[in-house]
Amino acid sequence: MKLSRLLRHLLVPDLWARRTFSPADLKKIEQAIRASEGQHDGQIRFVVEATLPLFYLAKKRSSRKRALDLFSQLRVWDTEKNSGVLVYLQLVSRHIDIVADRGISHKVPQAEWDSVCRAMEAAFRRGEFLVGSLHGIARITELLRGAFPKTPGGENELPDRPIVL
Hints:
This protein has 165 residues and is α/β, with parallel strands linked by helices. Helices cover 52% and strands 13% of the residues. Strand 2 (84-90) and strand 3 (95-100) form a beta hairpin. Helix 3 packs parallel to helix 8 and helix 7 packs antiparallel against helix 8.
């Protein structure tokens, strides 16, 4: 394990994640997710975490592994149409992962999700956390509209409010 990685994750307070996105910012992200889900049958969860848990650091696990674990823990996979998408922001590593459920991954290639992540990361490097997040959600909306067009009777299966861990 790289000492610099360990120190970054151990020394940065989790309050940093709460400071990066104000309550007003989180409300705007929630509203963007709600508006997005009105245009397609996908379900979006948005998770922000300042540092990786010590367990992940000790076991040399990546932020991608953390995203996959959260995908399961938050039951993003448990939507009727297998249309859940997790957006995971790991702030210390400045890494974003998008995990799409199997119903979506058959229709949207991973390269598309990776492109959204890189664009969000670029905005974050400029300090534009809210703007990058909203643009990312807008691009996810486009991808989901193409893969999972809105059908009558679809319900909101997952909470729209972002989670700050």
